[in-house]
């Protein structure tokens, strides 16, 4: 599903080497936490995955596509195959919950009939059926993140990228979000989640990749022998 081969990223403006000789392989259906201190290169990894940045050298393959060679005009289509969840939710404030989720389908070729069946189904999945008509500002942080998750899921993406999705919500609600992501993962969706919350990571039995100074310093597929 995801393959980074000898990837290096140097930001030209500052000369900062954010990733060096970065190699990783993530299979379809895996749930991977990416952890590491501030400045380690986690966001750079996500930006490369989303093709917001290109590597300075190396190859990146996601879902059968070579991201280095992907033509600029094909990038929007590539991004539509990803479900992305951000720390700051990024909901449309003037749209209610239903429309925030439906909007993600309206920009694709999905029929009105399919939207009418798909949106309520996904809202039910994230436990927000009763909030369909609420505006984001009337929801708690945990609820807003569940709307963002519903929006990311509604297109059935094979890969979900979550960048610090629990950074702005209470610890008990954070657990719920990761629990929900884990349920989605059980249905076959690959999940890559960046976080700095070690307590949260240790509550789940998922692969943990630790990045520091632009390289992977630990990759624990079995969790058992992870000790920091
Ligand atoms: P993390 O997400 O783990 O905090 P980042 O990927 O944001 O790490 O940053 C890795 C390194 O790259 C840091 O030294 C950071 O200052 C630098 N960096 C990140 N983005 C840019 C940018 N757009 N221009 C220059 N340097 C950057
Ligand atoms: P939490 O403490 O879990 O972050 P809140 O106390 O903010 O959540 O909200 C509790 C419930 O009240 C939520 O279900 C939310 O949707 C609803 N709610 C919060 N603020 C408003 C509001 N201004 N108008 C309508 N409903 C609201």
UniProtKB/TrEMBL annotation:
Listed PROSITE patterns: ABC_TRANSPORTER_1, ABC_TRANSPORTER_2
One GO cellular component term: plasma membrane
Keyword Membrane: yes
Molecular functions (GO terms): ATP binding; ATP hydrolysis activity; transmembrane transporter activity
A Pfam family hit: ABC_tran
Subcellular location: Cell membrane
Membrane topology, from the record: Peripheral membrane protein
Domain ABC transporter stretches: 2-228
Transmembrane portions of the chain: none
GO terms (BP aspect): cell division
Domain of life: Bacteria
Keywords associated with the record: ATP-binding, Cell cycle, Cell division, Cell membrane, Membrane, Nucleotide-binding
Annotated function: Part of the ABC transporter FtsEX involved in cellular division.
Oligomer status and interactors: Homodimer. Forms a membrane-associated complex with FtsX.
Family, as annotated: Belongs to the ABC transporter superfamily.
UniProt-listed PANTHER family: CELL DIVISION ATP-BINDING PROTEIN FTSE, IMPORT ATP-BINDING PROTEIN
The protein's name in its UniProt record: Cell division ATP-binding protein FtsE
């Amino acid at each position: 599903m995801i393959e980074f081969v000898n990837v290096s990223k140097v930001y030209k403006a500052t000369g900062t080497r954010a990733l060096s000789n970065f190699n990783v392989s993530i299979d379809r259906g895996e749930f991977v936490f990416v952890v590491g201190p501030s400045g380690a290169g986690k966001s750079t990894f996500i930006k490369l995955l989303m093709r917001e940045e290109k590597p300075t050298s190396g190859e990146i393959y996601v879902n059968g596509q070579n991201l280095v060679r992907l033509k600029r005009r094909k990038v929007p289509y590539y991004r539509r195959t990803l479900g992305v969840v951000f720390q700051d939710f990024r909901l449309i404030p003037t749209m209610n919950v239903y429309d925030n989720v439906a909007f993600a389908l309206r920009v694709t070729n999905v029929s009105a009939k399919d939207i009418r069946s798909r949106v309520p189904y996904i809202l039910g999945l994230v436990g927000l059926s009763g909030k369909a008509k609420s505006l984001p500002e009337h929801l708690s942080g945990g609820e807003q993140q569940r709307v963002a998750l519903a929006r990311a899921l509604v297109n059935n993406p094979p890969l979900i990228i979550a960048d610090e999705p629990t950074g702005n919500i209470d610890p008990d609600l954070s657990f719920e979000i990761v629990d929900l992501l884990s349920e989605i993962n059980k249905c076959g969706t690959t999940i890559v989640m960046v976080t700095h919350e070690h307590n949260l990571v240790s509550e789940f039995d998922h692969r943990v990749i630790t990045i520091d100074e632009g390289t992977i310093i630990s990759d624990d597929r079995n969790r058992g022998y992870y000790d920091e």
